[in-house]
Amino acid sequence: MKLDGKNVIVTGASSGIGAAFCRSIVAKKGVVYGLARRKDRLDSLKKELGANFHPVVLDITDEAAVSKWVDDTFNANNRPDALINNAGLGKFGNIEDLSLEDWHTMMNVNLNGVFYITRKLVPHFKASDSHSHIINIASVAGLMGNPKISGYNVTKFGLRGFSEALFKELRFDKIKVTCVYPGSIATEFFEKAGAETHSHMMQSEDVASTIVHILETADNFLIDEITLRPLNPKPPES
Ligand SMILES: NC(=O)c1ccc[n+]([C@@H]2O[C@H](COP(=O)([O-])OP(=O)(O)OC[C@H]3O[C@@H](n4cnc5c(N)ncnc54)[C@H](OP(=O)(O)O)[C@@H]3O)[C@@H](O)[C@H]2O)c1
Fold first, then answer.
1. Cystine design at 142: which of 36, 105, 138, 164 (Cβ 3.0–4.6 Å)?
2. Is there a domain that residue 236 lies in?
3. In this structure, is residue 235 part of a structural domain?
4. Is 31's C-beta closer than 6 angstroms to any atom of ligand 1?
């Protein structure tokens, strides 16, 4: 799709790769609806990006609020063109130390929130005359299990299955579905996860340029899955 004038919804727009996606899509003259809970972060992104960026303070785990926002915002004269399901978090630790609250938060944001917004936007995508695109940001944790990230693994493996099912379900409705599996990226993610960062991570801008490429592919050309990694990752512990 040509991004000029297209309506793109980005969840988790207030920091990290989500904010980078907003910058890159607005640079291509796309119109971005950036969803997140931290109003101050969205407000400063609005100052930076101007008229083509619409800040939307929304908790994607609040199904009623998500549903209302979609109903209030989109209609036959203003259709969404793309959805980037990016909001997500990890809580890391040994299984016996993983709290019920952290488990449920991961399930609610990384899976339930994705379901709530996707199910509301798909009818608009189906009604649209042009092609639409759903991009789900999973993780390499959606491809392989590892110690101390079991709960996070569950959500990203789940997102992988959701993406593959939707890709097959929606392809004949002119709706593309792409699942992205990034390795480590320098964002706030690791601090929130309670894990160490390192100096060999990917940069958000580079991930964003790949997302723009995926969105801009020709209508009958689908990248259904893509893995992104630092070429030279953190050396193994010696
Ligand atoms: N960083 C990595 O190494 C890495 C690797 C692979 C995959 N990922 C995935 O990339 C995605 C983005 O993460 P990031 O690295 O950019 O981390 P980040 O900077 O912590 O961004 C997470 C975003 O999710 C939003 N969010 C969290 N809970 C939300 C909720 N209930 N409702 C709405 N928004 C919510 C946050 O906004 P608010 O707090 O303002 O609501 C924030 O904008 C996540 O899905 C993550 O799993 C990250």
1. 138
2. no
3. no
4. no
Q: How many domains does the chain have?
A: 1
152 is catalytic: yes
Does residue 180 belong to any structural domain of this protein? yes
**Is residue 17 helix, strand or coil?**
helix
pTM of this structure: 0.98
pLDDT of residue 235: 77
Residue to mutate, 57, 66, 185, 207, ligand 1, most ligand atoms under 8 Å from C-beta: 185
Kindly state whether residue 238 falls inside one of the protein's structural domains: no
pLDDT value for 95? 98
Residue 238 clears pLDDT 70, i.e. is over it: no
> What percentage of residues in the chain have a pLDDT greater than 70?
100
Q: Residue 166: which CATH number?
A: 3.40.50.720
Contacts of 123 (CB under 8 A, 6+ apart): none
User: How many whole angstroms separate alpha carbon 19 and alpha carbon 11?
Assistant: 9
**What residues make up the domain containing 48?**
7-228
> Could you tell me which residues are beta bridge partners of residue 78?
75
Separation of 189 CA from ligand 1 center, angstroms?
6
147, 115, 153, 106: which is closest to 134 by C-alpha? Answer: 115
Q: What is the distance in A from the centroid of ligand 1 to the CA of 229?
A: 18
Structure confidence by residue, pLDDT tens digits, 89-113: 999 999 999 999 999 999 999 999 9
CA 16 – ligand 1 centroid, Å: 7
